[in-house]
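Entry 12.
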Amino acid sequence: MGQIIIDPLTRIEGHLKIEAMVEYGVVKEARSTGTLFRGFEIILRGRDPRDAQRITQRICGVCPTSHSTAAALNLDSAFGIAAKIPGNGRILRNLILGAAHIADHILHFYHLSALDYVDIAALGKYEGKDPTLNSVKDFITRGELGPFITRYNDDFRLSQEANVELAARYLKAFEMRRKAQEAAAIFGGKLPHNIGIVPGGVTAIATVDKIASFLWRLNELRDFIDNVYLPDVIKVAKAYPDYLEIGAGCKRTLSYGVYELETTEADLVRRKRLFKNGLVSESLELEPLDISKIREEVRNSWYAEECAGKPTEGKTIPTPHKEGAYSWIKSPRSDGRVCEVGSLARVLATYVGGDPRMRELVDGALKVIGVSAKALFSTLGRHLARALGAKFIADSMPAWLLELKPGEPAYIDYEVPEESEGMGITEAARGALGHWIKIKDRKIALYQCVVPTTWNASPRDDHEQPGPIEQALAGIKIKDEKNPVEIGRIVRSFDPCLACAVHLLSPKGTEIGRVQVC
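Predicted 3D structure (tokens):
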């Protein structure tokens, strides 16, 4: 039996190690290892609860707006104001988060994953007159291939013309990401770590000028999603149909739902949201979300056994020499079951939940590709879900802008309680994100974050059930063990964020492999 080790797997956020045991060209077993330690819960102890709003954004430079939103909802809950947020505050939070999510979706496909399918080095043969493409051609022909040549790949299937077209869009996507970030900053104040979203609402005041500025950028983004992003994903899916059949994983998804459509309901689980919450199985049945059944397990994680339990009971005690453990990621489970989180989970919960717009989007895309809804449980199914999710968000935002009442408050004041508990659940682009807090003597006594990649890249749990990425790799065929392109494509479809899952310190004895594009 052979062993494939990719350490680190690049074009993701942070350092992830993947080990695969291969027999006769088939992966029999895989291990997902987070190689750094996240200690934000330790940093937050004893601090003013409001510090969580600022500090947790520093967990990640890619999805800080999602952490900002989760922290705000968490503190709203703890401060007893969850059902009192002004309408403008709710809408502005949605707009800031939505713009950040659109930027993240574009980033994931074009700049983190496209190199798995698009041969950008094809620009070396470009004969056109586009100045931007010619500048990249000059760069490539000088032998500077590092940013564009992957460590593993000899399976490019697009034509020369299609490769050049998608290479041009790879470059265009940088501009579109910038416009999405600019849109988020209009109401968020700045990025990547916004100062607009706070407990009680948003500090910004909606004005006609700001609304128009946001809408101008949004219209460009909608055009890009409709005419570039979504068609490109479909084009890749048609060229690589086998990746609509592999990398399915656990075939059970979990969504917290996101983008609040009302704030009069204090219970975040029951609150109406644009993307629905719930669990979806392979049979495409929607099961209600029950937060009380979520528990983190640590048998194979470098944490003390007392760190296991519900987030409200969570502890963070690093144990770097724990026998048998192999990751700094914990293993979240819902009622003991492995669940995948992310755009696929959000889209499926909303689709199976009967939303007519989502059903039309999904069914239309699947018809063009020529597959059924069950093909969404796959490597390229995840990419398609993100593109459809981006369109669903962008198409919802113009109506939100029209609901804003210029000049009216978007924030209410509050008092920090002597003792309280709170919970904030939302969705990062990568999936379900939860923050939990306990306050004593007006200080943080406990703060726990359960992030998307903690779910997706989790190691085996207390019952030795592999995590979603580990399951997605098991059973796949590796054409060439010295060129395991299949592993990179499947893992990157989950868009792992190790900064979120394990962030902060490098314990003694932990080595990180030489960084190289894989």
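Annotation: Confidence is low (pLDDT under 50) at residues 503-518. The radius of gyration is 22 Å.
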